Each structure stands twice: as structure tokens, then as C-alpha cells.
Amino acid sequence: MTTTQQELHPAVVKFLSNSPKKMLINGEFVASKSGKTFDTINPATGEVIAKVYEADKEDIDAAVKAARTAFEGEWKKVTPKDREKLLNRLADLIEKNAAEFAQLETLDNGKPINESTFADVPLSVDNFRYFAGWANKIHGETLPVSNGNYFAYTLREPVGVVGQIIPWNFPLLMAAWKIAAAVAMGNCVVLKPAEQTPLTALRLGELIIEAGFPKGVINICPGFGETAGAALSSHMDVDKVAFTGEYITGRKIIQASTGNLKRVSLELGGKSPNVVFTDGDLDAALSGCIGSVFFNQGQVCCAGTRLFVEKKIYDDFVGKLSDRVKGIKLGAGLDPSTQMGPLVSEEQLKRVTGYLDIGKKEGANPLAGGNRAKGEHLDKGYFVEPTVFANVNNKMRIAQEEIFGPVVSAIPFNDVNDAVFQGNETTYGLAAGVWTKDIKKAHSVAKALKAGTVWINCYNVFDPCAPFGGFKQSGFGREGGIHTLELYTQVKTVWVNLS
Ligand code: ADP
Q1: Does the residue 470 lie in any domain?
Q2: Which domain does 385 fall in, by range?
Q3: In angstroms, rounded to a whole number, what is the distance separating the alpha carbons of residues 475 and 428?
Q4: pTM exceeds 0.70, yes or no
Q5: In a domain, 468, yes or no
Q6: What are the pLDDT digits (tens) for 90-120?
Q7: Catalytic residues
Q8: Which atom of ligand 1 is nearest to the CA of 233?
Q9: What is the pLDDT of residues 208-238, one digit of tens each?
Q10: How remote is the CA of residue 249 from the centroid of ligand 1, in Å?
Q11: Residue 354's closest CA among 295, 413, 402, 291?
Q12: Which of 165, 252, 350 to mutate to test the pocket of ligand 1 (most atoms within 8 A of CB)?
């Protein structure tokens, strides 16, 4: 492996030297039972970073068995206070190795090193700490029953063995979102990272051992969706599956879950409206729009990809936006001056460039970008130009379908009602943005938009205490905050006869 941008961190070199990378099952790193491996690719260069053992049905079976044994055995004996300590220790270890994690994430996913350093890694640490705190704070209630001489109370119990299937856009952060809450509530986990980006989850696995979690509590099995993912979501001894990814895959997960009626939570895609009113702080809105679409190369489920601009300022605002977007510096994520990296994979490059062609055929006008990016340092990687499409209407495919790339469709609107109507004219409902200085307008639009999160005069702000999830076909279940605990606990009612 080569990298021209920057020397790799010695810990990254050491981690990668030991290839093929093994999966974590029952507290040990093991090869796949089939011996099969797959390559994980550096999207900035197309080069192989490492080989990874590929989990298949048999490996998933072994991981689920280990999780079940831990759940019914050792893990039950660990007190809430000790679960809190273990999760905090894991957070400390990630923080101690933050620079290594950031580099590994950038290498595997392509995102700019500044984003992995200042967003992915610290948010992952925060998430482990936040849910660590819940381990000894969630509790049942006593019930004011009227029905005879009884005492009744509830217990909050873990669900059991949880399968967690995550995407490639925020590999470490998604692992943290999923694992922290489940483990804090006393569940055991089998995590399947995305096949494109398995490395930081496997490094996390090393720290899980170092932190002292009992064997089998957290198992990490990289593999493909149709094999390992399907095996996990259809497994008869998995009590719950939590999934983040495309809505089409979400439908398959629900179908696969019916065998034992396992619980399902889904965090799916979006086509989020970002609404700019004439009376907004337009400079702030401009920067906010850029962040909302081009952060992480646009590979963000809540990206504000439908930009609604009030008609009076549409041409001016979209023109300024395009000028700014033309200046975004593309390059390998490891180069600290890079503002936008490559897409994660060749498949993703094909998908996004396919939508660029569709947009042009539909009559949209690419004011900025519109093509695969070219250049000496870009040709081997999966780079695409950051793109602003003007002349878009809300019925076009580029306004209705999730592109999952750095492409914004700018659509004019007349007034508040029109903005809300068009904003809601989508099958998705994950997030939305509103830019206005009028406090009444801001809150009434936030209320009227059908979305799980609305940002007013900001975008893409996250905190572990803030629930995140979708309305409509963006899924169900909330991750973040107290609502996550619902996903990972079940309520038991106990009646005591006092007569
Ligand atoms: P993308 O197309 O952007 O990769 P996916 O929804 O396909 O999004 O992938 C998200 C996660 O779902 C990945 O870990 C992937 O391996 C997994 N996955 C894909 N297909 C299936 C499936 N049929 N069953 C279970 N998991 C799947």
C-alpha cells in the first residue's frame, strides 16, 4: 500500500500488517470458517488496503451462539455500574487512539481527515460515554393498581441477542451508535460492518477486548449483505435487528425478520428539504447549504439535497452557491487540505454519475460540476465533481430519488405554504432545514414539515442526547437520547398478591 499525502501512523501500519484481518467472535479474533476473504479498497486510489476474512452464515451462527451464551451467562452477572465502567473504558481507549482511528477511517472510507478527526471519532467517543451513563439510570416503576390487594411493578429488561447491520458512510460512528446503547442496556451484540469499510470496527474489536468486556458480549463479523447480513437478520436466535442503510434493504430486513418475529428498527434514507426564505441570514444559509450537502461527499442519509429557495432570491442565491461549490478542493482524504474526498466505491461512483446523466436528460442545469472529476491525482480514485443542479422541479427523479452523493437539486418556491407542500412531497421523512429570522415562521414550518429532525438556521448538528430517525419511508425507531433505550429494553410487569 502506498500513500503520497502523508506518512501513515505507526499504529495504522501495524494494524494493517496483520492481514487478512480476522473477525471477533467470542472474545477472539478468528478466520472465517470457509477461509474466504475479500479486499477493502482505498477509494482515493483504487488500491487494496487489506484483505479481510468474510463472514458467512456459519460464522454468523457461531457469533450468535457466543452472544447467546454470554447473555444467558457471564453478562447477566455484570452489574449496571460495571457496564458503565466498561463502556467508559472503551471510550477512553478510542480517545487515546483517536489519531489512528481517524486515519484508518479516512483510508477505508475516503472522507477528509479533518472530518474523521473532528466529527467521526469524537462523536463516537461521546456516544459511548453518553450511553454508559444510562446503564444504571434506566429503571421500572411501581404501578398504582386499583384491582384488589396487589402490589405491581415493572422491570426494564434487555431484549437479548441483537443483530446490528451498519452502512459505510460513518463506519466507526455507526458502530458506536449501535453498540453503545445495546450494551448499556445489558444486551449482547453481533455487529456486521459494511463490506466497503470494515477496518475501524475491527480495530474497535481489539479495544473491546482491551477494555475487558466478557467474551461474546460484542462480536464483529464483516461480510456481505446478501450472505452475512441476511443470515443475521433471518437468524432464529436473534431477538432484535437494528439496521441503517437503504430503504430497499430495510424492506428485505423486515421480510427476513418474520421467521421469529424479531423486533426491527430501521434508519433509512432521505431526500431532505432545506428551505431558504428571503428573510434568512443568507450568508449563514449559504454556508449551511454547502455543509448540508457536501459534508462526507454527500453520503449522508439526512443531507439537504432538495434545496428550496424563495423565488425572489433563487437566481442570486443559487448563483452564489455554485460559485462557492466550484471552489471546493477535491483530493485524497489523507491530505489535510482536502475539502471533499472520493466516493466510497466504484459502485457508488457509477450510481452518482448515473444520476448526473439523468439530471441533465431531465433538463436540469448543472451550474457547478455535473461530471466525474478528472485530474492527475483524481483519475484512479472515485471522485465526482460537487454538483449544483438548477432548473429543477420537485417531480424530477433527481429531486425524488436518493443519490447519496455531492449533488444538490435547487428548486424555487413561492411562499410558506408552497415550501411546506413541496418539502413534504416525498416518500422520505428523515430531516429538514429552515433558514429564516422570523421566529413564528421558523417554528410553524418546523412543525409542518414531516421529518424526524428539523434544523432551524443550522444543519447536520448532532449530539448523543438528540433522537434521530425517520418519518414515512425513512424508517422507524429513534437512535440517540432516551428513545434509543426503548429499542434495547422490554418491560416486564410483576404482580404480587398481598392478601
Ligand atoms: P448501500 O447500497 O448504500 O451499500 P445497503 O443498505 O445495501 O446500502 O447497505 C447497508 C448495510 O446493509 C451493509 O452492511 C450491507 O452489507 C447490508 N445489507 C445489504 N443487503 C442486505 C440484505 N439483503 N440483508 C441484510 N443486510 C444487507
Answers
A1: no
A2: 273-463
A3: 9
A4: yes
A5: no
A6: 999 999 999 999 999 999 999 999 999 999 9
A7: 267, 301
A8: 25
A9: 999 999 999 999 999 999 999 999 999 999 9
A10: 6
A11: 402
A12: 165
